[in-house]
Design brief:
mainly alpha; single chain; globular; 141 residues
Length: 141
């Protein structure tokens, strides 16, 4: 594969892993969340900005993008530093792209044993995540 033929792949990788996290966090947490906090309670600002973030992510699940956005909003509110959710968003997208490139045979999604193990981890992670989200949302002032 020549360098010229790999440019589109590199471009998509840079857009997904580097540029999207920066732009999306600046827009949804840096601007939208902060502006909404001026007119509605913070909890509603988190939910509204997260719903909009989820609605603009047609690939995958809107629900998972919404949950991800709530987590990024919590990170931003707790740290008061936009770089923290940008870094978390970057890492999320990086891991997703690595899995996409490494799992060319889609083993993670077709092998029954792998699916069972990944599903078990996903369920455990979801329970921990939801408990953490609800705890943090209750602490938002």
């Amino acid at each position: 594969m020549s360098i010229l033929s790999s440019l589109p792949v590199i471009g998509v990788f840079v857009m997904t892993v580097v540029l999207s996290p920066i732009v999306e966090e600046l827009i949804f947490r840096g601007v939208l969340l902060n502006k909404l906090k001026l007119i509605v309670p913070t909890l509603f600002a988190v939910l509204i900005s997260s719903l909009l973030f989820g609605a603009l992510h047609s690939f995958g699940s809107i629900f998972s993008a919404f949950i991800f956005a709530v987590c990024m909003a919590i990170l931003y509110l707790k740290t008061e530093n936009i770089c923290v959710p940008i870094l978390a968003h970057f890492l999320n997208n990086l891991f997703a792209e690595i899995i996409r490139f490494v799992d060319v045979n889609e083993l993670l999604f077709t092998d029954a044993n792998v699916v069972m193990i990944v599903s078990a981890f996903a369920i455990i992670s979801a329970v921990i995540l939801f408990i953490s989200i609800f705890t943090e949302l209750n602490n938002i002032k």
